[in-house]
Structures are given as C-alpha cells and as structure tokens.
Amino acid sequence: MSRLALLLVAALACLPAAARAQTSDAETISHAVFGPRLPTDYAFGAFQRGYFLTALELALPRAEKGDAAAQTLIAEIYAKGLGVAQSPERAAGWYQLAADNGDRLATFELGMLYQEGVGVPRNRRRAADLFRSAAEAGYIPAKYNLALLHVEGIYAEPSLATAAALMKEAADAELPEAQYDYGSMLFEGAGVVPDMQEGARYIGLAAEQGLLAAQVDYATLLYLGRGVARDLAGAVEWYRRAAEGGSPVAQNRYAKLLAVGEGVALSLEEAAMWRSLARRQGLTDPALDRLLVSIPPEALARAEERARFWPSEPPSRESAETIAVVPTAPEAMGPVLPAPTDPENAPSRVVDPDAEDDAAPQAGPPAADDTEADPQDP
User: Fold this and answer.
1) 3-class SS shares of the chain: helix, strand, coil, % to 5
2) How confident is the model at residue 140 (pLDDT cuts 50, 70, 90)?
C-alpha cells in the first residue's frame, strides 16, 4: 500500500472521533448556556397543538406508572372537556393522584375544586390545606389564595401581616390580581406600613396587565392625584380603556367627562352612548342624567343606536336601504306554452279512478237546444 493510501485510511479512521469530539464540545457549550436538555414531552406537545385525544393517549401509559405531570395533563383534559366529555369527577381523581405524587399545579387545582364544590363535596378547610401545600411548594396562585384566606381569617389564621407578605410575593411574581390587592393594602395600611406611592405603582402594574378593576382605580388615582402626580389626560385614557373593556363604572365616569368636556372634547352624543352601555349593566347615575338633559333627541337616538351595536358600528343607511335585485326569468324563445292553470287546459270533469271501465266518459257538457223543452207532468 502506498504512503498516500495509508494517510487516507488514517484520516478516515480519525473522522468519527473528531466528529464525536466536536459534538461533545457543542453539547457542553449548550448545557452551559441553556442548561441540560430535558426529554421531549410528546403528550404535552400534542396538548399545546390542540390534539387532545392524542395527548390523552400518550399520557395514559405514563400516568399509570405514576408520572405526576401526565396525571395532571389528563386531569386538565377532563376538567375542561377538551376532546372528551367534561367530567369534574374524573378530573378530581386524576388531580388527587398527581397531588399525591407532588405536583403543585394539581394540588392547587384540587383545592379549587374543593373550594367551589365541583366534582367533590365542598370543603373549604380541605381547600385551605391544599392551597397551603401548593404555596409551600412555590406555586404563586396558591400563595395569592392563601393570602385571601388569612384576610378572611376563618380557614386560616387571621393575620393581615401574613396575608400582606404572601400577597407581595404573588405581586412581585407579576400576578395582576395580587398586584392590585397588594396596592390596595398599601393604601389602607393593612398588614403593612402605609405607602400611597408604592400602592399606586402596584395598582398601575395591574392596570397595565388589563385588570379592569385596577384600570378604573388607577384612573381615579390619576384624576385625584393620590399617590401619583395629577394627570387628567392619563385619567381619561385609563377610563376609556376600562370602558372599552366593559367596566360599567368606567363607562359611567368616562361619560361624565365627555358630557362636560373635561380632559376630552365635549360630546353629548358620545356621553349618551356610554351611559346607555352602563345602564345595560344595571348602573344608573342621576348626576349624569342631569348633564345630558339638553341633548337633542336625534343625537340621543343615534347614541342609543350605536350602543345597540357596540362595539361594532351600526349599519349605514345605504346598506340598510339596499334591496337585493331578484333576477328576472329570461325571455322565452319560440311559442309560449300554456300554463297548467289556464281555464282552457282544465279537464272537462274530474276523473274518478275507481269508476267502472264500461262507464264511457262524456266529452263535455251537452249542448243546449235553441228551444226550451215542454215541461212534463209529474
């Protein structure tokens, strides 16, 4: 064998080792940057893509072997009726298995079922114990619910300080409900030292996440200048956003600002529309009614029409008056055939199909004589 051939053989023999070394280096870097690669969860992948029956089929073998994540996935499918008939009872059973195996989401969801009495008998004490277990495992919604129980003080020790501490953890984890409630606690000094500025900041964070109650309260804080610098334009904007989100309180307050032109262009028609929307949700305000007493009838009618179709626009007059054109029949070619209802095409008499065959049908009514026959004696 020539020297060149020997070199080629040696090079080819070294290629797999070099490739393995390169792969090993890449995996080492990947683990250092992103952490160790976790095994692929095909059941959860199918669940995320909406293939719920496939997810159920893939999760069942794992769940039967005690896989808590697979058991929780099956519980979610039955709890929400995803691809299967909704069954809170089956969901509760799978949540219980997963909770026994240490899944904190399953523990929390099982607590919610006991809290509401869905699929299991209502037992708030049992729910409180499950919330406490999930909270100790670090599940943020469980910490929020446990904080509420400490505020209530029935199924957990009454302690505003403990509630405030749990609420702050949930708020700092960006749970909007916790941000709003913790901000309110800071305003009231419930379990914490009062701090209006910090309270307004937390309420503003919840408003940014779309919590309607927080948006209404933050708008009010901006309007009054409590905990924040007074900002009329900002207050109007937050009232508008909450009104469009469906809050009747925001709709009523935004209507008042529109009716007097405070921070926004005056528009009685726009104000009347928002008033109508708030009224539909049961909120009436005599003060707002007095502000709109001078609205012209035609403007009021337009406002109420807009409220009927809100959030869509009412149909325009042109579209309402458009009449569909019915296509006409094409002109007949050649002689027109008689219609079946023409008198001359009607049968001379009704034919009885049960009549005997030897009864010869008459061709038509007998012709009348020119002279009248003499009457006969009875």
Assistant:
1) 60, 0, 40
2) very high
**What phi and psi values does residue 371 have, to the nearest 5 degrees?**
-110, 150
For the chain, give me the number of helices (H) and strands (E)?
A: 18, 0
Q: What is the pLDDT of residue 374?
A: 40
Other beta carbons less than 10 A from residue 203's beta carbon: 29
Which CATH architecture group holds 42-138? Answer: Alpha Horseshoe (1.25)
- CA distances 222 to 189, 203, 217, 228, 238, Å, are 20, 11, 9, 6, 9
pLDDT over threshold 90, residue 193: yes
pTM score of the predicted model:
0.74
Distance, CA of 175 to CA of 334 (rounded, Å): 80
CA distance 291 to 91: 53
**What are the boundaries of each domain within the chain?**
42-138, 247-315
Give how far the C-alpha of residue 286 lies from the chain's centroid of Cα atoms, to the nearest Å.
33
Burial class, 252, CB count within 10 angstroms (exposed 0-12 / middle 13-18 / buried 19+): buried
